[in-house]
Amino acid sequence: MPERRSLVDRHVGFVHALRDAGVPVSLAEGLDAARALRVIELADRESLRAAYAATLVKKPAYRPGFDVLFDLWFPASTSGMSALRPDTAIDLETAEVSELRAHLAMLLSGGGTEAEMREFAQAMVERFGRQQAGPGRQNWFSYSVMRALSPETLMAGILREVLQGRERGGLAEKTVRQRVNSGIKRFEDAVATDVRRRIAEDSGIERIARSAVRPPLDQIDFLRITKADLAKLRREVYPLARRLAARLTIKHRKGRRGRLDFRRTMRASLQSGGVPLTTHFKPPRPHKPELVILCDTSDSVSSFAHFTLLLTYALREQFTKVRAFGFVDTVDEITRFFVPGADVVEAMTKLADEADMVRFGRTNYGHSLERFAERYGDAIGPKTSLLILGDARSNYQPPALEVLKSLTSRARHAYWLNPEPKQQWDTGDSVASDYGAVVPMSECRNVAQLTAFIETLA
């Protein structure tokens, strides 16, 4: 039997589960959500969902995880095997699979309500989703339901039924395909939701909640990111690049004064008997900062390297002068691959094939820094911001700290972003603290931390 919880218990548990899943919910927002429950009809589950979403969800990226947890903490009521319209009612416990597929085809083609789709999905989970795991134990699975009904194979029959001899390939067929594909997605989601509900009833909501929700996109570690996540992150990179460019421009403007304005200083000294108590300076000449990026592209940080190359590509379009360099155990300038207007995927492919960043294939920060100073040392000057991206793991090779000190002493600002957790710094072949003593090093494991780093530049 599922554990009974009061509404207060469910509210508190739901808010804690959101925080554990990486969705930021403050105490004030939790109280706002509780107040919202006083002005809605609690029996209307979608109104309850909307009230919580309006008070607790701040970004669209947080919504998928929110919906999964909401369905766990406030599950839809179940009504067994008979909640179908009288004119289409079938015995879902004994009906042939062909009859069930025909009924699903009707739902997918728009012949039923959302509630009927949900009730049918619950019934199919009850019939096909259960697998015995031992005496008195059972597991629930979505794939067995989808395998039994194979909704993706229903498209041809639905098209024949709906189009009824009309010409194929036109707008009508496109509309039907879109409707059916949308229906399949809703059915899959309904099945997955009910499977999670049943597992939660057997194992506890907290246990399934910890594994059911992926972290929001901005909190996924760069070192564990997938190609699909990288594709989504492209939309996040460009606003960050613009903010980083703006912050670096502010740093340059605040950190520099113009030449002494002798005339204004002497004029002001007349008020103090000719003693120049206050000095005045001419405003600095406006200019955009120059940026040099030094990026570790080795396999150990390959996912982070892909993200930093995306960032490099975006930054290339925000500055008038950007020079980018990639390294493994030697270094090469990669600016040429990121010209404005170039396709980012094509640029990365060419970079991997043509750039000279590898001698023996083992990361060597010391040799890379020495080669950079030797070949490209003139890239860094008094107007330059130096941004180093890497995990500071150099396979126990000499770190070339004096070379790094020389480079950073010539730069206006220098920053190091490290994708590893701080707890792992200085373990194994990491020399993070040694490098961090020369260049301020910040943990940068995800987009949220990169955003926080950019905010500190103000």
UniProtKB/TrEMBL annotation:
Organism domain of life: Bacteria
Protein name, per record: VWA domain-containing protein
Source organism of this protein record: Nonomuraea zeae
